[in-house]
Amino acid sequence: MENIRRFAVALSAAVALGIVSIIFVGIWVSHYRDGLAWDGGSAEFNWHPVLIVSGFIFLQGIAIIVYRLPWTWQYSKLLMKFIHAGLHLLAFIFAVISMVAVFDFHNAAKIPNMYSLHSWLGLAAVILFCLQLVLGVGMYLIPFTPASWRAAFMPLHVYTGLLLFGSVIAVALMGITEKLIFGLSNPKYKDSPPEAIFVNVLGVLLVLFGALILWIATRTSWKRPSDQILHTLHTNGEGDEGSKIGPALSELSDGADAEPSGDVRRRSNKLEDQEN
Amino acid sequence: MENIRRFAVALSAAVALGIVSIIFVGIWVSHYRDGLAWDGGSAEFNWHPVLIVSGFIFLQGIAIIVYRLPWTWQYSKLLMKFIHAGLHLLAFIFAVISMVAVFDFHNAAKIPNMYSLHSWLGLAAVILFCLQLVLGVGMYLIPFTPASWRAAFMPLHVYTGLLLFGSVIAVALMGITEKLIFGLSNPKYKDSPPEAIFVNVLGVLLVLFGALILWIATRTSWKRPSDQILHTLHTNGEGDEGSKIGPALSELSDGADAEPSGDVRRRSNKLEDQEN
């Protein structure tokens, strides 16, 4: 129970940070900027940070840890995979619309597109995210995919997912930097007006949200019990080649407070699925 | 041997990317900017990107994966811990000097300090890096520290180390963004002069370097053999409480190409140390 309690604290903190971030970006565009519209002007641009924070960061973060929620362990792994994929798809749609908003705004204002490092890395992240989504569905939601392919691909799937999540936050921080430099003129960013401080705090909140999601995703003791067993089997080399299991989301650490594996075995008597 | 060959390819690519990044930042400050000096002017500022890329990014990256180098497995774990800590200390010194350069430059040019999100997150990263270094030395290089403390702290040590490494690269990307906006006036950043493209490429190189270091650090099958055994013991719950072992750097995945654990056991017959 101590383990579950710690998970609940970490999850609550992550969700709270995510929601506060969304509120912050809402206040930023409505109180300090021109609000939201779809008119080619700066109010259309404002959809960009709103959709990135609420979709590409918050929804993606929740999608990553959805297997960790203890109250979902009673549902089938297949259902959870659909929710995992569905949330990622939603995050992707948010990201695409947010990019359309920027291109519209740039084109209307005669500002060049794709010149900044932020735009290069942001577009690369969206393209790789799409590839990850397509490959993920092909590997884990199409029933014909061989179990050996699924297992072989899992380490890359997990690594790429976490790397992309971290990269999206890094790109958002670059975007905040750009917007505060370009958007603040009198007083300037360097004069630290209230908007500058406020949006800097938003940046800090996004980093803390990302750090917590990565912590939750990489604690083995917080994994779905069947996935913990799969990991144990794999580490021991007990699985035969045909059903070799890739470890599930992250084994960065087993944690000093890991439940004894015997306990885990009692909690789940069968392997629900052949991959994470 | 296939496993070692793959490691060699990944390591070579990471080192090459790191060295090319250092060359890029050197060309940036010498060809496009005013070179290096310690005079309070822009040439003093230029030490900032040079020392961050060569020290806080490249040296830190190498420090993280130093346990993975197969030709070091013949040396004692203690020696490798000193090298791991020493490289991190060097990276920290580079970071501190690089910050002094910026403060000097700002003060001479009457530019405010610490107003940007880049400066907030950069300073936080340096402070947390220092804390991580002090705690790491206290935990793993002072002989009196109880093994149970070492084991309990290891998951946090590994997580924080990798998170800080990724964060430092993110902060560097924000710094590049700032410098290109402030430094380019005619033509501007948005006009994509050669310097803008060149330094954007430097940003991409840093991301690729970081991604490769994180990949290397999180492959269990590339770990020092004794650490792989410690991980197996821990995952199985075979270790008694007093000598409970935290897993070593990263268990993000065991990889489909993991060596059978029997092989690993043959390669090393004793546990050299009680922690990573």
From TrEMBL, chains A, B:
One of its GO terms (molecular function) is metal ion binding. It is an enzyme of class 7 (translocase). Residues 262-276 have a biased composition (Basic and acidic residues). Residues 13-218 form the Cytochrome b561 domain. Keywords: Cell membrane, Electron transport, Heme, Iron, Membrane, Metal-binding, Oxidoreductase, Translocase, Transmembrane, Transmembrane helix, Transport. Its cofactor is heme b. It is a multi-pass membrane protein. It is found in: Apical cell membrane. GO terms for cellular component: apical plasma membrane; lysosomal membrane. Signal peptide: none annotated. Pfam families: Cytochrom_B561 (PF03188). The chain crosses the membrane at residues 7-29, 49-70, 82-103, 123-144, 156-176, 196-217. It catalyses: monodehydro-L-ascorbate radical(out) + L-ascorbate(in) = monodehydro-L-ascorbate radical(in) + L-ascorbate(out); Fe(3+)(out) + L-ascorbate(in) = monodehydro-L-ascorbate radical(in) + Fe(2+)(out) + H(+); Cu(2+)(out) + L-ascorbate(in) = Cu(+)(out) + monodehydro-L-ascorbate radical(in) + H(+). Residues 233-276 are annotated as: Disordered. InterPro entries: CYB561/CYBRD1-like, Cyt_b561/ferric_Rdtase_TM. Its EC number is 7.2.1.3. Homodimer. This is Plasma membrane ascorbate-dependent reductase CYBRD1. It comes from Anoplopoma fimbria (Sablefish). The gene is CYBR1.
